[in-house]
Specification:
The chain has ten helices and 13 strands. By secondary structure, it is an alpha+beta fold. The chain has a six-stranded mixed sheet, with helices on one face. It has a four-stranded antiparallel sheet with strand order 10-11-9-12. A three-stranded antiparallel sheet has the order 2-7-8, with helices on both faces. Helix content is 42%, strand content 23%.
Length: 359
């Protein structure tokens, strides 16, 4: 028996670069998913405290179609079976506090926590990267989301007080210390998105088409000059341009954080958001407006951008502690204009990743 916990994540920069073998700069947040686990008899059973629902399935059998949270549970179990890692009957109880559809990786939090629980139950001794890849495979093969590996690697490898520079090709994870003067503010736009139902998968196909036309394994290997010179239709060229320029911004932001260069931080986050808006076409006018409000409130001591897959979800601001109150107040006032409140305005510091405790 035990409890597995994995956090959600917020991505500071590097959007839609992970499945292009590129670079990302996320950090784990102080919200996540906890799974109480133990062995049972007969069919495996799971209770979702958040939904007040339960499920029963054969953890050793091929994937049995399901939707919602059930697909994630059965999908992770199916990937273990695919890897010839035989699971006994399971008894699970799941609860979490990562907002769904917010771009904070509630699904990766669930998948990584499940992977940690299943590894412990089966005594497989899997490492964080293996568990992350199992959770990603579940989403790709069984849930139906063509996501990259960033969310799962961030949930598995999160480190308190650090953001993570992740090379999504080599799977190397390099912690980058975040100075105490830095605050991360997450503001939910109030627009919920669904990765499977959005244009996320179409964007991935466009990136793959661009890489093929450029003759490279992935857009990580392309340069701006290659993109400009290639015979691409305007939309595909724009998608590729976003990925290539965003990869460069990831390394630059990591360096700016280390140098505590607030001017560069603001410029890089603004450029990232503009690229998502103009080249990748995944933002929405209300989110653009919210980003502008938070950027102005930072007063040159930070920046803001949309975070996550797009088409809704959250905005992230990276600001100096002495500007945090002003940025939070600006967010509250922005929603109040229309008589609304945000589902989430949450200041945090980077948190630790996957943890499995035996009882």
């Amino acid at each position: 028996m035990g409890v597995a916990y994995a956090p959600g994540r917020v991505n500071l920069i590097g959007e839609h670069t992970d499945y292009n073998d590129g670079f990302v700069l996320p950090c784990a947040i102080d919200r996540g998913t906890a799974i109480a686990f133990g062995r049972g008899e007969g069919l495996s059973t799971v209770v979702s405290a958040d939904f007040g629902e339960d499920d029963a399935f054969d953890a050793s059998a091929p994937f049995a179609g399901a939707v919602g949270w059930r697909a994630h549970v059965r999908g992770v179990a199916a990937v273990f079976a695919d890897r010839a890692l035989s699971l006994p009957p399971l008894r699970l109880a799941v609860a979490g506090d990562v907002p769904q559809g917010a771009g904070l990786s509630s699904s990766a939090s669930l998948g990584v926590a499940l992977g940690g629980a299943f590894s412990a139950i089966g005594e497989f001794g899997l490492g964080e990267t293996d568990i992350a890849l199992i959770a990603q495979a579940s989403e790709n093969r069984y849930v139906g989301t063509a996501c990259g590996n960033m969310d799962q690697l961030a949930a598995a490898h999160g480190r308190a007080g650090h953001t993570l520079m992740i090379d999504c090709r080599s799977l190397s994870v390099t912690p980058v210390a975040m100075p105490d003067d830095f605050a991360v503010l997450i503001v939910h736009s109030g627009i919920t998105r669904g990765l499977v139902d959005s244009a996320y998968n179409e964007r991935r196909k466009a990136c793959e088409a661009a890489a093929a036309a450029l003759g490279v394994a992935a857009l990580r290997d392309a340069t701006p000059a290659m993109v400009d010179a290639a015979a691409l239709d305007p939309a595909t060229r724009a998608r590729a341009r976003h990925v290539v320029t965003e990869n460069a911004r990831v390394a630059a932001l990591a360096n700016a954080i280390a140098a505590q260069d607030w001017g560069a931080i603001g410029e890089l986050m603004a450029a990232s958001h503009a690229s998502m808006r103009d080249d990748f076409a995944i933002t929405l006018p209300p989110i653009d407006a919210l980003v502008e409000v938070l950027t102005q409130a930072a007063g040159g001591r930070g920046g803001a951008r949309m975070t996550g897959g797009g088409f809704g979800g959250c905005v992230v601001a990276l600001v100096a502690q002495n500007r945090l109150d002003a940025v939070q107040s600006a967010a509250v006032a922005w929603f109040a204009r229309d008589g609304r409140t945000s589902p989430l305005i949450h200041a945090c510091r980077p948190s630790a990743g996957l943890r499995v405790d035996h009882i």
